[in-house]
Structures are given as structure tokens and as C-alpha cells.
Amino acid sequence: MATLTNMIDEVSMNLAGYTLTQDRSTYLETAITAVASSSASPTSLELGSTDNVGKGIVEIDEELIWIDTYDRVGNTATVAPYGRAYLGTTLAAHAADAKVTISPTFPRFSIKRAINDTINAIGSSIFAASTTTITSNAAVAAFRLPTTGDSLNIRNVLAIAYQSIGASKEWIPIRTWRFDSNANSTAFTSGQTVSIYDVVPSGRTIQIVYSKDPVVFTNSFFIVNNKALTSNVATLTTSDAHGFAAGDIVGVEGVDSTFDGEFTIVAIPSTTTFTYAKTASNVTSAAVSPTGKVGYTFANKTGLPESCKDLVILGATYRLLSNLDPARAGMVSPQADEVDNKRPYGSSQSLTKQVYALYSQRLAEEIKSQQDKYPIRVHYSL
User: Fold this and answer.
1) CA 323 – CA 105 distance, rounded (Å)
2) 249-252: long-range contacts at Cβ-Cβ below 8 A with a sequence spacing of 24 or more?
3) What digits encode the pLDDT tens for the residues 61-106?
4) Considering the entire predicted model, what is its pTM?
5) 88: which DSSP letter?
6) Across the strands, what pairs with 71?
């Protein structure tokens, strides 16, 4: 199962092997809400331990928080008025028992950004492939893409075929067509059309295989706080609106062994619930404690092949490794000398080159794989 949360964990694991000092951590004893801290009503964190806590940054989930004061006796930390959603991270609620990382070397939001930057970067070499269908009409030559709804943002059309009449089930290639990515927006509101000049019987289904840019991640996960299972249909409830749609493939974790796994969503009863097929004994509606997580899978969200996951992880790793040495530049001389005895300055650049070489090799392999799967097809355009 490859969700963004899993990918962030994998990148973090890769990076942890290259750092001299591992991040220290504790946990939240009491949940906190998504409310900004203020001088009149500062946010207080009740922690499992404050042994390693000091004035500075801590990370909970993907939010950075600036700690202003701390109490080692009461194991609490007070957040500065400017401390929530620090450095442009997103203000969020955090559940009890959530991990609190102290002065993270690689914050999770930075890893997420590196993953999205890599997805955008490889989009110039590798495309996301998808399909749409239209219905042939002998009186029409130019067809809106898609037939209804918003634009598909098609980069290029790869192949077109129509389903033959009869029991053969054959899909017959269409050889003469023209794709217009800048169609008249008054006549075609999506701004994209395909004109078909082969003779296709009316009423036949035409399938269009097309390429588009990969889609980056927005949310890493949504918190799951309730579960139920009736007649082999599982229903999960999230704490916030999830934005899923029927047909999306999601990864569920931290609920329990019955509900965890990768599933295709069947229905969306409300903005905070979704259902999927699960063959198991009925489960009465109950709260999930501690809460679970659900998120889009890599292939479903980005549109890239599942095999590209490790390519993206390598790309994010080399992007972040290059920041290790600059982070040491501000160290005073005695500290720098001590660190340099164990890891010479510039060593991260050597590692960056090695990881980048692996990334480049994997990118070339994925390009070749995609070229084999979607060979250039000869067609005629009027």
C-alpha cells in the first residue's frame, strides 16, 4: 500500500541513515485543536516527557510549532503566539498519542514538498495515462473532451478505437483523427476536442487513450474516527471533509485488521463518510481509538504507474540530502570541528550524487517502459 504518508515514512527512513544525530521525540498526552495560539490564550501541549524539549521547533504530524516555554515538572510546553502553523505549515488538530518530533532534521512537510516537486519534475519525461469514452454520431465530426464535465487537461491523444458491432468484442483502431487542445471555448467549453474522420457507425462507443500531467498530493491523510460494517459493506467516518469520489482507491491504516488495507470506494454517503466492499462479520458502529488514517494511493492520485513510486522516493531523497551541509554552515567553530571529525564537510554532496545517479537510472527505465507500453501509433490528421 503506497499512500503519501507511507512514502513520507520511506523517504524519512532513507534519510535517517545519512544523519549523524537521530531526531528525538515524545508524544502528546492530550489532543489539541486547530486553534491558533495567542498571548491571551496560549496553546499548551501536555507531553509524555519534556526531557529533550527546549525553546524552538517541534513537529506534530505535518505541523511545525514554535515552543516558547516549557515545564519539566509538569511535562508541558507553551506555544508562542506565532507558534502554530510555523514556517508556512498548515494549522491542524492533533490526536492524543501523536508523535512529537523535537527539532526535526527533515520536517514531514518538507519531505511532502520534495515528493510533490519530484512528481512535477518527472512530468516532463513521464506522463500519466488515462481513458475517456464518447459515442459516435455520423452527423458530428468534432467531439468535446470530455463529453460532459470539466476539462481533462489532456496533453496528447495516444490512441483511439471503437467497439465493433456483433459478438466479436473487437476494438477497431481509428486511423484518421485530429486532437485540438485549444478548441473554441464558446462552442466547446472544455477547450479540447477530437475530430474523427474515419467512418464509424453511429452509436458505437469510442475509447480515447490520452496522456496528461501527473497530479501532486494535497492532503497526506484524513483522520478516521468511526467504523462500521454491515452486510459486507464497510463505512468509515473522517473528522474532516475528505473529498473522495466513488471509484477512488484509498489506503486505510490504524483502524484494525478488518478495515485496514487498500480499497476502491463504492459510495460517498456524506462529505465525511465513504463505503467500500469488505467481506467480514458485521461490526457495530464504534469510535476508532486511537484514530486511524486514510489517504489516496500513489497510482490513483498521481496517475503514474505504481512502479514509479521508488523513482519519486529517490528524487525526494536526493533533493533533501543536498540541504545537509548548508544546515551546518551556521555552526560555531568548535562544534563544526567536532562534527567534521566524524563526517567531513561536503560528504552529503557525494551521497547526493550517488542517489541522483540511481534516480537517473530509474527514470530512464521508466521512460523506456512507458514507450514500450504506449508506442507511437501512425495516424492521419486532416
Assistant:
1) 10
2) 249/296, 249/297, 249/299, 249/300, 250/3, 250/274, 250/276, 250/294, 250/295, 250/296, 250/297, 250/300, 251/1, 251/2, 251/3, 251/6, 251/294, 251/295, 251/296, 251/297, 252/224, 252/292, 252/293, 252/294
3) 999 999 999 999 999 999 999 999 999 999 999 988 899 999 998 9
4) 0.87
5) G
6) 76
How far is 121 from 208, CA to CA, in rounded Å? 26
Cβ distance 215 to 179 under 8 Å? Answer: no
3-state secondary structure of 219: coil
User: What DSSP assignment string belongs to 174-198?
Assistant: P-BEEEETT--TTT-TTS-EEEE-S
Residue 43 vs residues 29, 63, 172, 342: alpha-carbon distances, Å: 14, 14, 65, 39
Contact status, residue 154 vs residue 127, Cβ threshold 8 Å? no
345-374 pLDDT, tens digit per residue, is 566 678 888 999 999 999 999 999 999 999
Contact in structure between 221 and 294 (CB atoms under 8 Å): yes
Cell, residue 316: 525526494
Nearest to 58 by CA among 70, 42, 72: 70
Question: What is the CA angle 231-235-236, rounded to 5?
Answer: 155
